[in-house]
Every structure is written in C-alpha cells, then in structure tokens.
Amino acid sequence: MKLAVSILNYRTPELTLKAIQSTLDALADMQSPWTVIVVDNDSQDGSDEKIKTATSEKQQENAPLWDHVEVFQSGRNGGFGAGNNFAIKYAREQYKDLEYVYILNSDAFPDKDAIRLLVEFLDDNPKYGFAGSYIYGTDGTPHSTAFRFPSILGEFEGAMRFGPVSKLLDKYKIPLGIPETSCDVDWLAGASMLMRIKTLEDIGVFDETFFLYFEETDLSLRSARSGWPTRYILESKVAHVGSASTGMKQWDRMPGYWLDSRRHYFKKNHGTLYFLTATLLRLSGCAFCALRSWVERKPNPDPKRLIRDMLSHMFK
User: Does domain 3-142+178-248 have CATH number 3.30.365.10?
Assistant: First the structure.
C-alpha cells in the first residue's frame, strides 16, 4: 500500500464529507494503491453515522472512488494525536507494505495535485521524514503554517510584539511567515502533512499526552533529532477553513489544554528549568505588551487573564 489518508472528524460531518471528496478527487489519478481512513473522535452527535451513511450511499451509487473510504469510531476523544494514531495503527496493521500516512484536517481541501506533489517529494528524497503543504484560507488568504521550534527567546519575542525586539531576535521568531519557495522548516501545522512510515517506525507516533496543540511540534522535533528533516512544499496547495473543530477563532480565554500542551512540550523536550525560564520571559513579554496597549489606548491582543492562567499552569 502506497498511501493511507487519515481524516479526523469531531462534530464537523459536513466539512469532513467535503474533505473526503476533495481527497478522492486529488487521488483519482494515482496509480499506486491508497486508502482513506476516517476516524470519528467520539463526537457523540451522530457524526459517525452521518458519515457512514453518506459513504455507503456513495458506494451504492457506483461512485468507485468511495470504495477506498473506511469510517471508524475511535470510542474516545483523546485529542488530535490520539485520533490520528488510531488511523495510523489500523493502516500499519492492515497494510504491511504501507509507505506513507497523510494527515488531513476535516476542514481542509487539497487541490488536485496537492497530495501527489508531497508523495513525489518524499519518493525522490528518502532522507526526509515529513512534507507539508502551502495552506490558504477559503477566501484565498495565505495561512502561516511553517515554524521554527519554540525556544526561550522565541517565546519572548512573540509575547513582546515590539518592533525593535523582533528585529533583534529575528532568527528566533517562531512563525516563518509565508515562505516564497519550498524549503526546509522545523515543523509544520498538521492540516496537511505527509509522513514516512519508516520515520514513524524510528521515532514513534504522536504523543497522546498532548490533547490539542504542540503534538505535531513534538513529533517534528523527534524527527529532526533523529535525522529526518521536514519540508515545506509551496506548490502543494490546500484550502483550509481553520479551527472548525476547536473554535480557536472565537477563543476569549486560552483553554487549559493549550497551556497543558505547552508545559508538556517544554518539560518533555528541554526540562523543567527551561520551561520555567521560557514561561517567565513570555510573561514579561505579555506584561510589556499589556502595558503598551494601555498607554496607547489599544485593545490588548492577548486572551483575557492570560498572565494569570500561565502563572497558575507554571506551578501546576
């Protein structure tokens, strides 16, 4: 089996069905064997039945591409990593010769050649572990999805939001902006990411301690440390609604699971002292940003009570 696609659904059945159709359209001309695995992450709203029914109807309507689609219920909402691990485990057990797993968000829609370009890159470059796409909004706006690994100075720069500091710490900025060409990156947002099975056999799958956020950062860090770099492929284009399942765009306050994931990432990969130092510097940057916003009579861009919440998680 050349490729298994993992699409994780959580209470977005209509978007998930659209993502499936876009995936099938993108894979229609692929000569090597492939399959699409849809995992409902215990939505408890009838999502899995809606997707299963729609899939069955498509298969009965003699839509042959839909014969490649399998729908499963995970039985628990363990988060993004756990849901995709469910699909990865199933695919590896069913297809012993599996080469790649492609992770696609349920609100992401690949262009016709998006998946093929990722596969071709990893085929031609066996030293790379992961390859990801250029992501743009459904309104055409580019999304920032290429990043450096989080660091102490990167945390400080991002929290400060102050031009002179950002210029001084430019090489530590975590977001890379929108790359103008395909390039190596530290990590990519997991909306559209192709993963080599040999890499996963080497480093392991997603760490399920992360419920949401930082799981692909951690996976990419493990990959990089084991000598498997990550590539951003500008020509592979995927439309993305963004935050359809998490509601991130409507966050008024940073959820506890984001803070938990951040703490786990730093402590796991760099140790407790590094985590505490990174958090203190981020808090000082947040305090500066809040003071500057107050002086300039502008809204504070940070979520409400962020400093208080980070302090409480710092010693949790």
Answer: no
